[in-house]
Predict the structure.
Amino acid sequence: MPSSPRNVDFSSIKAILFDIDDTLFPSSEFSRLARHNAIRAMVQAGLPATPARAGRELEKIVKARGSNYGNHFGLLVRRFHPHNPQRVVAAGVAAYHNTKSSISPYPQTARLLLALRERGFILAVASEGVALKQWDKLIRLGLDPFFHHVFVTSTNKDGKSPAFYRQIARRLRLHPSQILMMGDNPAKDIVPAAAAGMHTGRLLLGKHARERAKASFSLRSLSPLLWILSKHSKTGKFPPPSASFLESH
Ligand SMILES: [Mg+2]
C-alpha cells in the first residue's frame, strides 16, 4: 500500500537519487517482452520446442547464470539440438536486441525530472551493475541529460551497500539527511540508503512490489513526488506544482 510521510520535514533535501530499473522505466516488463520475442523468433528459426517449453528452459538458465551472463541463448539452443544452432541463436539475439533497443521511460518520468531540476534539486542516478550497461539504458531512455551525476557500483564489490550511499553523499558534499533515495528494491534501494542516514521513497513497482520494507514513504508511481516534497517541506521553499502538472499526469 502507498504510504505518506509522517512527522518529517523534507525542506533540508538538496539532492534526489534514482534507481534505474523499475524506477525510471518498466524494466521487468521490457525484459519479459524481449525474452518472449526472442523465443518466438528462435522457434520460427528452427528451435524444435514450443514457445512455452523454451521459455521455461530459458528462465532456468537466466536464474542459474544471472542476467549479466552473455550466452543464455547459446545454452538454450544446446538443450534442444536444432538443425542449425547458429541461425537460431542469431534470430534470438536479433529479436531480443530489437525489443531492448525500444525501451522507454514511464510516461511521467521526464516531466517529473525536469520539474525537480527547475526547483533546484541535484539529481543523480544510484545504480548497481555494469557501468556501460547502465549508461546504455539511460541514453536509450533519453534521460541522461536530466542527471547531474551518475553513480554505478559494481555487483562484484558490495553493490548498493550503506558505504556506497555514504560515498555518494561525500561526493555530493552533502549530509546524508539532505538526500532522498527513490527506488523499487527494498534490499538495494531502501534499507542500505536508510542505514546511511538518507530519506527513502519506495516505488511499489515490478517484482519487489509486495515485499515489506520501511521507507519514509511509498508511491505507486513517481508522479506525486514533487507534490509530496512540497507538502512536507516546512519552509515551503518551493511552490506546489501547478494544477496542470498534476492533472496532465
Ligand atoms: Mg530497480
Observations:
- Strands lie at 15-18, 122-128, 149-153, 179-183, 199-203, 217-219.
- The CA atoms of residues 38 and 92 lie 4 Å apart.
